[in-house]
Design goal:
globular, three-stranded antiparallel beta sheet, single chain, 12 strands, seven-stranded mixed beta sheet, alpha/beta, 7 helices
């Protein structure tokens, strides 16, 4: 296992204008109290039949006729009350950004109801969302793995990135991201699976590459 300090400094030691580093937000940059932040499943009559954490939602299959209630995920008040920084991952984002690297946040959330309040909370931890844009894949229909991949695909087409990294706690999202290799054979894709222990604060990141499939673990 490689020390986390090396993970933070990797890809932040030199400028690379053709690379993009994309970070998921929930459970990657910020951990949450799952009693405060949930997705509710409603039946065809509007009755709540199940409640999901953010991680459960990533792989949940919605029954026919049912719909999701994302009210808690759209609330900036709940975000500021619930979101606790995963400091090692925020340090990684800031190290890349401070060295002139290109960063973005792609979240499965849709628009929050108070953008200035959200921006202030992010700013407390040194994340300027005017500089590191937050793309809200939840504004698009579909599952997070597909909508996040669509956002990243658009960024590659727009900016011509030759190397893209995704840091995410969801294996489904990372698998969807790696499938972009078929559409962009000349682009390198690097998937970083983030596992955070909220009790200890420990973080383990397992990294794979479309060019070098061998995994590396950082802790």
């Amino acid at each position: 296992m490689i020390k986390f300090g090396q993970f933070i400094t990797e890809a932040a030691t030199k400028k690379d204008t053709n690379s993009l580093h994309v970070f998921d937000m929930d459970e990657t940059l910020f951990a949450h109290d799952h009693h405060k932040l949930r997705v509710h499943v409603l039946d065809p009559y509007g009755n709540r039949v199940r409640t999901l954490t953010n991680q459960e939602f990533n792989s949940h299959q919605l029954p026919p006729g049912h719909r999701y209630d994302f009210g808690e995920f759209r609330s900036s008040d709940i975000f500021t009350q619930s979101a606790k920084p995963i400091r090692k991952m925020i340090a990684k984002l800031k190290a890349i950004k401070n060295n002139g690297g290109k960063t973005a946040i792609v979240t499965a959330r849709s628009d929050l109801d108070d953008q200035p309040k959200f921006a202030r909370h992010m700013g407390k931890y040194g994340i300027d969302i005017g500089d590191t844009h937050v793309y809200r894949a939840g504004n698009m229909p579909g599952k997070p793995a597909d909508t996040k991949a669509a956002v990243i695909s658009d960024l590659i087409n727009k900016h011509g990135h030759k190397s893209v990294h995704l840091y995410d706690d969801s294996v489904d999202n990372l698998n969807g991201f790696m499938k972009l290799k078929k559409a962009f054979p000349d682009v390198e894709f690097h998937a970083h699976h983030v596992q955070h222990d909220p009790e200890t604060g420990n973080v383990i990141v397992t990294s794979t590459s479309s060019e070098k499939p061998k995994e590396k673990k950082y802790c």
